[in-house]
Amino acid sequence: MSAPLATTRPAIPGGPSLLTRLTTRVRHGELGPLPVVVGLVIIWAVFGVATGGDFFGAENLVNLAVQCAGPGLIAVGVVLVLLLGEIDLSVGSVSGLGAAVLGVGLVNHGWPFPLVLAVALGAGAVIGLLYGFLFARFGVPSFVLTLAGLLTFLGVQLALLNTSGSINLPADSFIVRFSLFEYLLPWQAYLLAVLGAGGLFLSDLRTSRRRERAGLASRPLAVSALKAGLLLAVLLGVAAYLATDRGTGVSFAFLVVVVVVVNFFVGRTRWGRSIYAVGGNVEAARRAGVRVHVVYLTVFMLCSVFAVVGGLVSAGSLTAVTLSAGTGDVNLNAIAAAVIGGTSLFGGRGSAWSALLGVIVVQSIANGLSLMNFQGDAPRFIVTGVVLLLAVIVDSVSRRSRQNHGTV
Amino acid sequence: MTTTELDLRPRVPATEPVMSLRGITKRFGAVRALSRVDLDVYPGEVVALVGDNGAGKSTLVKILAGVHQQDDGTITFENAVVSITDPAAARELGISSVFQDLALCDNLDVVANLFLGHEVTTGGVIDEEEMERRSWELLRQLSARIPSVRTHVAALSGGQRQSVAIARALVGEPKVVVLDEPTAALGVAQTAEVLNLIERLRERGHGVVFVSHNLADVQAVADRVVVLRLGRNNGTFNTRDISYEDIIAAITGATDHGASRNPFTEEPA
Asked: Does the distance separating the beta carbons of A274 and B132 come in below 8 Å?
């Protein structure tokens, strides 16, 4: 007969203080956005000094923000696929294909932009569905599947552009204005900042109300107010500084809104929860009743659609669709952005924010190096590659640390 | 010997079994894994299913979980003959299984694991507060020692992970809980924790099927012991009436209870 057990009641709901939880998390390898924020500070400091402060000029930061939009949108899709523990190596080609559809449709055929947009997004959706189907049906590893896609859709892009070569986009077309020439008026940027910080505060307020009603410990309102206040100050400061030049690019604001929306769906819906579950333990998810195939299909589809959106914005900001659109480092920049931003390559960890943070790092490197008069791709490739390597090392080390702490 | 809230006496069985298996037979090709096995589970009772390797315990558990279907025999659940065609059907009936590998997502916290695939939503948004409240309630009822329901499962000990897996099996309020070797990989203290949890399941009125190799654990928590040997019943005993040696004898075949108790069980040679 077993001895009677002294059973401890669970601790007070809510648990230890914020600071204790943070340090425990870091020690256990739950780093979140900490490494990328540190990395960004270092990179900015280096470029700030090396360019004699030119890097922080309002004009340059306005440019930097605009340069982030296209690759950032592609990275959002990559984050989703990485959360599943899979990868999409063809986002560059798919973005190039989207750009080719844009050029051929808009300029060569004179289609209205909404039609071009629908066709391009539709092509992305079909590609993603195809990936999801092949992955689920035949169990082809996503890495090989999308590698095949990389070549195939690059071929389709070249075929589409075969007759015309590169296509210049009219400067007054919607996509070019959206990607390059449209900036938020100061009051619009301030309004967005207030909406963002206010939304965060209201969401926190709602959570703590609901927690109190459910009899759970809730975080003091002062913390939420402080957090929202800080965010508001930062956003207003950025908006005001950018407004001293042309202002916040519409395309960058669009990226931020997309990140917020995707983050909501990933963090707060059953669909999002099932993405994390599949990325953490597919078999457990399947047995718990998660429709795993549906998750794969929707995520691969969204990834390709975001790749197309990013491709359109990138083409718009170049004012041209070229044969090399989506080739070169576009692929790896998007994947690097997601990983540098803190989304794990091993699946199940990360958030949409890592697309934004990561792309700011990647584009800061490109931007800073060009300010320093390093010409050509070589230095950019090397530095971005090294930073990606560092990010992957941080990812792997923190994973190992989690495993060590997981077997306490 | 015990606290007031912990009553270790065997329960007076309810009059009607919640689940009743009769003549369950399962073949894999030429191998007969189960031959006319009977099993009754009463509400608020812990039935230990014991037997040597290859006795058919796992096959029986998989039939209850809907992973395999029996070739012959009937399963009666709450007085109705049912067929368990797949894992979802088992869950809907009210049979919840916890397998050895636990099937937890390490990257998610305890709440997310408890409600995985069955998240509570309000207006399409996950209702974290309601799920967390219910998680605390459930774990408190089970007296499970989890530091915080917001801990990631990766940071839990083996016993705590087992507790989470068992608690998850209770989220749909099943009538029968099947535990496959829940103490196999655990140390002494963690085993005690899980056995304690099984007592709580009984108090909550669940019928528990407890598969184990460890006879000390069996004697600690089970009300009845059902012995399988070579895919057949080899005796059903009240735990208080039987010694450790008796169970060993039944498991190894030194004593043959199958024929005497179920004269029709034996297949023609």
From this structure: no
